[in-house]
Amino acid sequence: MVQYAKSRKAIDRFLGSGRIGAIGHISCVDRRPGDSVSSPENDEIAGIVAIGASQLAQICDLLGQSPVSVIARVTRDSSRTCLQVFLQLDEQTVVHYFATFDDDPCGHELWIEGAGGSLKTDGNSVWWRKRGWPKFLPVRIGIFGTRSKRPDPVAPDVLVNAIADSARSREVVGIARSH
Predict the structure, then answer these.
(1) 119, 20 contact by CB (below 8 A)
(2) How many angstroms from the chain centroid is the CA of residue 136?
(3) Does residue 179 lie within any of the structural domains?
(4) pLDDT in tens, 34-77
(5) pLDDT in tens, 79-122
(6) Number of structural domains the chain divides into
(7) Calpha distance 46→39 (Å, rounded)
(8) Is residue 123 part of a domain?
């Protein structure tokens, strides 16, 4: 699982500075080896959903927003399994999460798109591109403001159940708030 521990401080401070503006869209592409999926029930779909829910819970925590609704789809063919999730957050922000589990090269990339520009990370480093700029520049930790208090993080099991329900029903599923 990709952890944002190395890039967390830079992302927090950059988002706290307000330079990115109102966040409109987040996309996360997560490529993993096919054998990275495991679950206690030996159910590949449950394992994939658990991985996706864990990543999405981290993203919600990074943004300080709570999930409102989700729609998900799991597809399989002979060489890969894919999970695609659209998660709406409470400030009308949409997260698009796309994960593949196959023999292709592994990688992870999170993009946060705002009115003022784009922030991207691979979990280790963070880059910024102001709207209209042609290139991304590295973000250094400690040069921006601080974030205000965020809500309690969402529990991954809440997302696991919602994503699994949506993947089965192919419908939008609402997510109840815990507070």
Answers:
(1) yes
(2) 20
(3) no
(4) 666 655 555 667 778 888 888 898 888 888 888 999 999 988 87
(5) 778 889 999 998 789 999 998 877 777 788 999 999 999 999 98
(6) 1
(7) 7
(8) yes
